[in-house]
Write a structure and sequence with these properties.
The chain is built from 11 helices and 11 strands. The protein is of the alpha/beta class. The protein folds into 2 domains: 31-117, 3-Layer(aba) Sandwich (Rossmann fold); 143-267, Rossmann fold. The strands form 3 sheets. It has a 6-stranded parallel sheet with strand order 1-11-8-7-5-6. Strands 3-2-4 form a 3-stranded parallel sheet, with helices on both faces. It has a two-stranded antiparallel sheet with strand order 9-10. A hairpin with a 2-residue loop joins strand 9 and strand 10 (241-243). Bound molecules: guanine (GUN). The site of guanine has 7 residues, from strand 4.
């Protein structure tokens, strides 16, 4: 039987509505809208699209949004100075530095991201927020993995006691996904490029998350019948053609539920960012 298709649009819409309602409550209570600042350095076309989408979502939901475009040749010191200004700005509750950074400052990515005040780190990349995720304290969680968990919940797919397999161990998706699934009482295995007998492991998964960045990597023989397959891959194979990490046409015949690319979890990332901005303001106001 063909899998249920988990449409990102449907779930993203619910998450955004929820963020919009909370933003209105915060405006009412504090006389100020939640505020997001996005810094973009240089003119990477894909980054420009992502930043525009974030700005548009903020406008729709009554979240104030400032896009700071810095020239390609900006120095690390200039970028750090902008971050310091935003850390001290009480109207800004969330700060995001769009990645990738231009090559002359890419080597300083960790230092740059770590300069963002942890309470304003709406990407959830700061080591303080990573630590909170690991220990289970309240903090800001990376948007894409958090969005995947919210989508599984809304789709009524249980996690407690299930076998979950994550392919990929990046700081942005694989590692936080592991901790989020573990916190929900799944038994979680992380596979990566050095994993032996990968298909044997993925075939045990009730929930399979693919975040490796290789088009069509997950094939039908790697999937347990009835599994929920979450495709986090965004592989640009031509200027206008995106492809996921999962061979959608094959795998949808085996899986119980599957996310498409495009139109899957990518849309949840922006929706969760909106939720994180609202959550950041709530936490700052209660501090
Ligand atoms: N570039 C692509 N994805 C992301 C993301 O989640 N956060 C940031 N800051 N940059 C990105």
């Amino acid at each position: 039987m063909a899998a249920r298709i988990l449409e990102g649009k449907v779930y993203a819409q619910k998450l955004k509505e929820d963020a919009g309602k909370k933003a209105a409550e915060l405006r009412e209570k504090y006389g100020m809208a939640p505020g997001l600042a996005v810094i973009i350095v240089g003119e990477n076309p894909a980054s420009q699209v992502y930043v525009r989408n974030k700005h548009k979502s903020c406008e729709e939901l009554g979240i104030s949004s400032e896009v700071i475009s810095m020239p390609e040749e900006s120095t690390k010191e200039e970028l750090l100075a902008r971050i310091d200004d935003l850390n001290g700005d009480t109207k800004i509750h969330g700060i995001l530095v769009q990645l990738p950074l231009p090559k002359q400052i890419a080597a300083y990515e960790a230092e740059i991201l770590n300069r963002i005040a942890p309470e304003k780190d709406v990407d959830g990349f700061h080591p303080v927020n990573v630590g909170r995720l690991v220990t289970g304290e309240a903090g800001l969680v990376p948007c894409t993995p958090a969005g995947c968990i919210r989508m599984l919940d809304m789709a009524g797919i249980p996690l407690d006691g299930k076998r979950a397999v994550v392919i990929g161990r990046s700081n942005i998706v694989g590692k936080p996904m592991f901790h989020l699934l573990l916190a929900r009482h799944a038994t979680v295995t992380v596979c990566h490029s050095h994993t032996a007998n990968l298909a044997e492991i993925t075939r045990e998964a009730d929930i399979l998350v693919a975040a490796i960045g290789k088009p069509n990597f997950v094939t039908a023989d790697m999937v347990k019948p009835g599994a929920a397959v979450i495709d986090v891959g965004i592989n640009r194979i031509a200027p206008k053609k995106l492809m996921g990490d999962v061979d959608f046409e094959q795998v949808k015949e085996v899986a119980g539920a599957i996310t498409p690319v495009p139109g899957g979890v990518g849309l949840l990332t922006v929706a969760m960012l909106m939720q994180n901005v609202v959550k950041a303001m709530e936490m700052q106001m209660q501090a």
